[in-house]
Fold each of these.
Amino acid sequence: SFTYNHKEIEKKWRDNWDKNPVNVETEDKPKYYCLDMFPYPSGSGLHVGHWRGYVLSDVWSRYKLLQGYYVLHPMGWDAFGLPAENYAITQGVHPAIATAENVENFKRQLKEISAIYDWDKEINTTDPNYYKWTQWIFVKMFKEGLAYEKEMPINWCPDCKTGLANEEVVNGECERCGSDVTKKNLRQWMLKITAYAERLLTDLDQLDWPEKVKKMQSDWIGKSFGAEIDFDVDNNEEKIKVFTTRPDTLFGATFMVLAPEHHLVNKIATDDQKESVEDYVFKASLKSSVDRMQDKEKTGVFTGSYAINPLNGEKLPIWISDYVLADYGTGAIMCVPAHDERDFDFAKKFELKITQVIAKEEDDVNKELKEAYTEDGIMINSGVFDGMKASKAKEAIINYLEEHEIGTKTTNYKLRDWVFSRQRYWGEPIPIVHCDKCGAVPVPEEELPVKLPNVKSYQPTGTGESPLAAIEEWVNTTCPTCGQNAKRETNTMPQWAGSSWYFLRYVDVHNDKELVSKEKAKEWLPVDMYVGGIEHAVLHLLYARFYTKFLYDIGVVDFAEPFKRLFNQGMICKNGAKMSKSKGNVVSPDELVNDYGCDSLRLYELFVGPPELDSEWDDRGIDGVYRFINRFWNLVIDSKDKNVQPTKEMEKIRHKMIYEITNRLNNVNLNTVISGFMEYTNKLNDIAKQEGGIDKETIEKVITLIAPFAPHIAEELWEITGHTDSVFNTSWPEYDEEKMKDDSVEMPVQVNGKVKATITIGLEEDKDSVLQKAREAIENKLEGKSIVKEIYVPNKIINLVVK
Ligand code: ANZ
Ligand code: ZN
């Protein structure tokens, strides 16, 4: 007898798939690459929130399999980074050992999902055979001038004791530990991602990505048009160059502000003002850039000097204030309080002049502004430009400035170069040797990898040097160019380094000659479908695009975008908060798999809500899914030996079901796929009651449809219904729209043009029979009159004319 026993069935098929994999390469199969964002193997293991994305990508992979593809669905470990290192510090366990243990545990837990991962292609970013290529890319970037050293004030996390990239600072806090980020002046390795700003922006157009993510990236790149304008300084040789997106407001500039770090601050501050200026500069150096921009209350100091407005000769007091950032535009601005909110606040606070130069209507002048007027309008108080539309005047004023050599048209990007060095142990050593004579020299490519040595103390030094600096025998080396004594770079790479190109390595993991061979890259890349959380919108996803473009430029790959289609799954929440160990609201999959089975949990992960949205987890919900699976099982088992002949109704349901499931699946509306299965199982059950079962073909199709979602039960039922090979060897069912049509329709019957009754007729029913039904339906509404004419247009009109 056949009872649904998830434990037996799931174990049986897992063993079976190990022996006879379902995803096999043959010459004629097209290739499909479905990728999960690889996990950081943390010590706390997987919870049901992690399952969501992995189930989703596995359903997609198995769907592609059934569509006839050979699918690459790999898994690996993004294993460098702070948590392993912090664990080493508190527990004294080497990060490599802790990482290996965590990977083992993660892998065991991942296997519970029964995803078709190709474990032969597993990668680990901390494996020297892997990071050899991470270092190789750095060396190539160095040789192309894209990796460079710079002493600069960078974001510094006082708790992690390391520098951070701008992308890692979220609302002024360290993306990892939540501490307030400060500034520190340090020698840094930088990657020139800004050289790719324009391409990173325009190529977004080609991508089948959520609009939200594209917008986040384009906002982060932050392209704006405007002008750079030179201002003379009264009684001083220096000129101040500003960047403005609003040259049309130039007549309304009433003061200037320099960033406290601006190189002219010292030269411009008058003797009277020097002391307060220096004091302010020092205080500003301690604040992070996010705080500086978000601080409500404006602060600043007058330098004592004046600039000259190049258009009207007005004297503009020059101030310094930390709301102007040193590393954006030119680090100096012309201030137009009438039309810029920040300048307005500043002018109000320090009682500076406000001159309106754009008005909604031409006569709407000389009223005191309550707030900055930031919209388009008509130019006023602007000499020859008066009366023009401001948006037109922008162009006209730029032209004027260019003609008189006071300014130039410019484009600016918010994107900054990437601060790439970390003062920590557990990362890829930056493959550079410092030589007194030759400067920074890259380690020769054939000598890579530069292996991470063992240290005794992982403790970050806090001095801005990494713990590697203390290992003399490692640090001291010879210069690859001149052979003299030299020192190794002791900074390591950020965790993003290994994840910026890993998707390329999966397709050719064992290649020790190249990062990836041309043939393999051509066969598999770029990634067809990429599944992961939205939190990576401007970090990993931007870096990966940058790396790919670079590798394209140096001829390693022949495509410039890594991920064709992106799907961001929402988070699983419990009690309103994102599921995470730190929130104490974690649900482990282990017990659920034990009680209900992997298939039920897979279905419930998808049923819990629209996959792109955050969804609230409710343990009780899986019970309903489990009952559905049992109904589904019984439907098939009860019908399988009945040899029921297909009725029209069964066929219609079958085609409709295939159509709807396929459509919903293509749109990744997976929760509605699951509800669709429930709905159709009920319909088929109703029919089975009437007809004594459902026909063989319908049984086959419904098993195939559910196979990507609940693969174990599908295989078992496939076998029970007499098949000797895997259900995944069949192909995704097709539908016939003709057969989906209802075979009867409701038709209104008109009498002298007014609807008097409705009849049900078959689609193919002949004219005589239709009219016969129509006459019967109105028989008792004739009021003694008789039919003189019958009009019938099939499927459109039945009209009986009576007198
Ligand atoms: C005059 C002006 C008048 C401005 C006006 C705006 C409105 P986006 O679009 O973000 O590029 N700005 C320029 N450099 C700056 C810096 N280093 N720190 C802070 N602010 C800076 O904005 C560019 C505008 O931001 C520039 O245009 C400048 O103010 C300011 F009605 O110039 B504007
Ligand atoms: Zn040298």
Note: The chain has 26 helices and 32 strands.
Amino acid sequence: MRVSQLFAPTLRETPAEAEVISHQLMLRAGFIRKAAGGIYSYLPLAWRVLKKIEAIVREEMAAKGGQELAMPIIQPAEMWQETGRWSVYGDEMFRLKDRHNRNFCLGPTHEELITTLVRGDVRSYRQLPLLLYQIQNKYRDEIRPRFGLMRGREFIMKDLYSFDRDEAGLDESYNKMYDAYSRIFTRCGLSFRAVEADSGAIGGSGSHEFMVIADSGEAGIVYCGGCEYAANVEKAELHPISAAAEESMPLTEKDTPDTKTIAALSQFLGVSPEKTIKTLAYSTDKGEIVLALVRGDHEVNEIKLLNKVGCLHLEMANEEAIASVVGSKAGYIGPVGLADKKDIIIVADATVMNMHNAVCGANKPDAHYINVNPGRDFKASIVTDIRLIQESDPCPRCGAPIKTARGIEVGQVFKLFTKYSTALQTTFIDDDGKEKPMVMGCYGIGVSRTMAAAIEQNYDQNGIIWPVPIAPFHAVVVPVSTKDQLQMALAEKIYGELNASGVEAVLDDRNERPGVKFKDADLIGYPVKVTVGPKAISDNLIEVKVRRTGETLYFGPEEYVAGIK
Ligand code: ATP
Ligand code: MG
Ligand code: MG
Ligand code: MG
């Protein structure tokens, strides 16, 4: 590729809208352009990086027996209604109707579709296990699309789904993917950590997130210097609560809120005060935390700390604020304040929200939980222990001091068990002749987010420093003067030889000042720059500069190709 023809429009100024480095540099270096909030065009350089990440992903998926397929992006509502997620997914789902007024969505993920697909064609244990994956655009109408490719509304994901006969099989598939993910991010040249995670809205239990360590990361993680323990903050937070769950305590008289609160709540709930009392949570006697409860019978299988909730003080809590937490206004009932205005109660209707969005909270940020089951998950004596884990707190596993870091979630692996196969009747006949639901897992990698994360970890004041395995090109050949025929001829020769030997090179044949070309080369982040100036002609020495180290090396015409490799 000749740079004179390359569509990589570089910018001198940093666009004001870009807050994080990867967004700034991808705009400046001509990798992406915005079409709408969270929706981008990938220009040729970005596309090459994405294809390289995808190639690594494909190799590692294949190595574990993964088979690639392609499912539709447009998905019918019915299968989402069968699993209950049509309402749970809320406003994050892009929805559309066809001309017959039928409901569809743009796939935010594909559990429903693939489970339905497998249901139709897999009948026997002999056809299992199955590891099926695709790499395609996903659509999520994120409440805050930002940071360029890090949180897009259209983004590229690799999603693999595993189908096994039993939990032992699932463990094996899960471990394979865990291993593949470790290999993928290592091969991409990233510094990352796998942390224990909550399984969130997708459900099930047993999950890890792969976090690229970067200060700009939206996720907090904790890890132990003394043992292998590592978790995201939400998961780490649950430790004291899970322990309490085992010795759960029934609600007592003392925990019952005052009559004014009950009256207000019953009005919101539309149920009698008696029923409200039964379904209402309790507060600590310190008045620090008030739990909210949900009405109806609930069978809770997970609780989750909603991090970064922000201001949910009584005065400020409103429908929008709650909706931003629970992801949907549907089923939301309302915040209720205690008489003294110290505490708030937030109630979400679990029967409508399918148990995923029942919220409880405190009158402070970062202390809100969903899917709570008060008698089980909390008791007054330990509620006050809930706080964000901090640097130097004891490791929940070994007691050594905890360390904290910020991370970018580039991938996540989940054990789904039979959540979807049960809901969608995806069964097989086992070798004992019995019909059983398939045991599933799902495994996602944000391909476009991985590209952004790579930049967050690899840059300097002059621009991007691509890790070689995912660099758009390996080398740029820069003739100092394009008017100098000897220089141009040598540059052409080097350019040809590099490409012939498997080093992907571009030739900066633009009639520009050398300073401009060098600046662009640094900004775009080619790992190697070959400068062809007067010295190359007079001394027969080829100057090779390494972007990452700034080191300059000189090679003879017979050695430079090997030197670069
Ligand atoms: P997040 O917590 O950042 O919202 P998620 O947990 O909702 O991500 P998953 O459902 O686990 O995302 O999807 C698998 C992977 O897809 C994520 O690990 C991430 O790398 C990527 N991903 C998710 N949402 C986005 C997005 N809006 N833009 C870019 N990549 C994304
Ligand atoms: Mg998300
Ligand atoms: Mg996440
Ligand atoms: Mg995730």
Note: DSSP finds 19 helices and 29 strands in the chain.
